[in-house]
Amino acid sequence: MHQCTQSEKNIESLLMLPSVFFAGPNHMMMEVWNPLGVVGVITAFNFPCAVLGWNACIALVCGNCVVWKGAPTTPLITIAMTKIVASVFEKNNLPSAIFTAFCGGAEIGQAIALDTRIPLVSFTGSTKVGQMVQQQVSARFGKCLLELSGNNAIIVMDDADIPLAVRSVLFAAVGTAGQRCTTCRRLLLHESIYQTFLDQLVEVYKQVRIGDPMEKGTLLGPLHTTASKESFLKGIQNIRSQGGKILLGGSAIESEGNFVQPTIVEISPAAPVVREELFGPVLYAMKFQTLKEAIEINNSVPQGLSSSIFTRKPDAIFKWIGPHGSDCGIVNVNIPTNGAEIGGAFGGEKATGGGREAGSDSWKQYMRRATCTINYGSELPLAQGINFG
Ligand code: NAD
Fold it and tell me: Which SUPFAM superfamilies match (predicted)?
């Protein structure tokens, strides 16, 4: 009786893995995943360490080194995070250079985008900059993972739990001063509940406490920079010039810091400004008659990050999450567009870039796959009919 050698036993155990295939007598085929090498991570100001974690943890577990560039306005977080990570490596007798960080702006981002030693660049930021980075990385045949701008809608149907939807819209549109990629920017209301809903929303908006976000009870802190405040004011001008009616807010607050009022606007979905991401607490309210129309409005913008519907009707829920429903990467039901971001695959379609961080198979983006066929015999079946002497 044939006694298995150790190598045959090894091969047999490999054959039990799902990615190992039989490839003919004395041949086996398997898919091997290897690290990419160095992964570049460029992050936005508004998630100065979470986005790094979503990328760097998987990249490192997959055996890569990481080069990180944080936002130029959040250097202290970049330095603090890097020190924490370095201390873990040092405690485990590993070189801390496995994880390297830079403080700086566009010039460092450019250096990462153009460097052929960095096969994957994970970029989180605006669509405008992300598109440029993607073109540069693609031109050198590198890979890009893009997490770009959002323009997220909440649809409220006529049968929705209105108090739940009002709470959710407030949290999604005003929380973090509207400076999340998943902030709700468009509110689509069924015509039969339009006025009731807006009246209730305006009432709760009036109770929002604006101030130091470190103080308990504050819901609305300042915008990140003076430039953010200027962009809010320019956005309000555009809204007015395109026929938008300001129902509440619409001004900056005269005080130290970049505080602005939480703002609700009544506007047509056809107004060009509605297609853009205005990075502040500005909510566009719109009316619809049918679910089909609401889905069309939801899908009519260039971005495709997050979306939510409030309804109890199973037919509406399954239409919404199906092929003729929301075209976004995040498609929620009876919860806001934000707040449950990570755990599943996170990311969006269209001008949001198509990238996915976390979730079931995201690790594959941080690795390269080799298909290996191993001949452990001495036959070459494809060489039949030729006499090699
Ligand atoms: P941004 O595009 O201005 O900057 C993002 C990063 O890119 C920064 O680190 C910046 O220094 C760098 N950068 C700037 N110019 C560059 C260049 N030419 N080459 C390479 N890198 C360059 O974005 P921001 O204002 O910091 O962040 C807000 C934007 O990020 C919003 O649009 C928001 O929706 C988006 N965002 C998206 C997600 C997501 O997961 N989809 C998460 C957070 C933020």
Answer: ALDH-like (SSF53720)
Question: 3-state class of 282 per DSSP?
Answer: strand
Q: Which string of DSSP letters, residue by residue, matches 18-54?
A: TTEEE-STTEEEEEEEEE-SEEEEE--SSSTTHHHHH
User: Among residues 331, 337, 357, which one has the least CA distance to residue 346?
Assistant: 357
What single-letter amino acid sits at 368?
R
Give the DSSP letter of residue 218: -
Half-sphere CA count of 181, side-chain side, radius 13 A = 34
The reported pTM is: 0.94
Q: pLDDT tens digit string along 300-350?
A: 999 999 999 999 999 999 999 999 999 999 999 999 999 877 789 999 999
Look-up: residue for tokens 């008659």? 289
Following DSSP, what letter does each residue of 338-366 receive, concatenated?
A: SS--SSS-B--EETT-S--BSSTTGGGGG
Structure tokens at 17: 């893995």
Q: Could you tell me the domains of the chain?
A: 19-148+353-375 (3.40.605.10), 152-333 (3.40.309.10)
Is residue 139 packed enough to be buried (19+ CB in 10 Å), middle (13-18) or exposed (0-12)? exposed
* pLDDT of amino acid 361: 92
Mutate to test the pocket of ligand 1, among 103, 138, 148 (most ligand atoms within 8 A of CB): 148
Q: Which of 52, 114, 149, 342 gets mutated to test ligand 1 (max ligand atoms within 8 A of its CB)? A: 149
| CA-CA-CA-CA dihedral for 263, 264, 269, 275, to nearest 10 | 20
Question: In the annotation, is 147 catalytic?
Answer: yes
Percent of the chain residues past pLDDT 70, beyond the cut? 94
Can you give the pLDDT at residue 116?
98
Q: Is the minimum distance from the CB of 276 to ligand 1 under 6 angstroms? A: no
